Amino acid sequence: MQVRTIEAKKRDTNKKAKHLLEKNVLPAVIYGPDIESTPIELDLVEIRKFINSVAETTPFEIKVNGESHHAFLKSIQRHKVKDSLIHLDFFVPAKGHRMEVNIPLKFEGEPVGIEKGGKFHVIHNEIPVSILPKDIIDEIIVDISGMDIDDHILIKDLKIPESFRLRLEEDEAVAILEHPKLMAEAEVSEEGVEVETIKEQEGSEEETSEK
User: Fold this and answer.
1) Which residue, 127, 129, 135, 188, has fewest beta-carbon neighbours within 10 Å?
2) Burial code of 129-158, b = ≥16 C-beta within 10 A, e = fewer?
3) Closest among 155, 136, 133, 152 to 144, alpha carbons compared
4) What is the C-alpha to C-alpha distance for residues 207 and 211, in angstroms, rounded to an integer?
5) What are the pLDDT tens digits along the chain (211 aa)?
């Protein structure tokens, strides 16, 4: 997995964020159980180049005044109107301690059941796991090309590294290829419940008016 290296400087908190952003300086903070929370400043132009392609599983090496920290991006703050970057939070995990993160699932292939009218439905786009920072991966590839009508993929069907501790049951489904007939019946059933409810309400009103 590619580690992104960022050069940073300790930030003077007396300087207003607005003034820093005007000079293409992005305010941020780096914190963790083994380090003191430290305000830092980053090159806004450089951060913009990759910020849309990183996730919470992307490892960073942040160099603050020559001292390196292995961190993960925990939150991104954007301007409510302009949607521009205004602040980043980086977390430095304790060495040897597990982190709880969500690993994205990447579904590849075209299910054979699609040609029969089936509809591919994703239940989980990512799975929560407990993991050591050194074992974090970008994503888990899921081959769905062999899925036919009514087939489903469970957590236990995924190729998950042994070092991962799952936070979902192994029999939990992550995706299913739904049967077109069942989908149609479900839609009819929902409409029937709605009509029946209205009729019951109408009947109740008529009884009330008769009394």
Assistant:
1) 188
2) bebebeebeeebebebeebebebebebeeb
3) 152
4) 6
5) 678 999 999 999 998 999 999 999 999 999 999 999 999 999 999 999 999 988 888 999 999 988 999 999 999 999 999 999 999 999 999 888 888 889 999 999 999 999 989 999 999 999 999 999 888 888 999 999 999 999 999 999 999 999 999 999 999 999 999 987 655 555 544 444 444 433 344 444 444 444 4
DSSP state for residue 124 in the 8-state scheme: -
In 3D space, the residue among 8, 135, 134, 131 whose CA is nearest the CA of residue 68 turns out to be 8
Q: What residue ranges define each of the domains in the chain, with the CATH number in brackets?
A: 4-91 (2.40.240.10), 99-184 (2.170.120.20)
Hey, how many other C-beta atoms are within 10 angstroms of the C-beta on 63? 13
Cα–Cα distance measured from residue 162 to residue 50, given in angstroms and rounded to the nearest whole number: 30
Residues forming beta bridges with residue 77, ordered by sequence position: 87
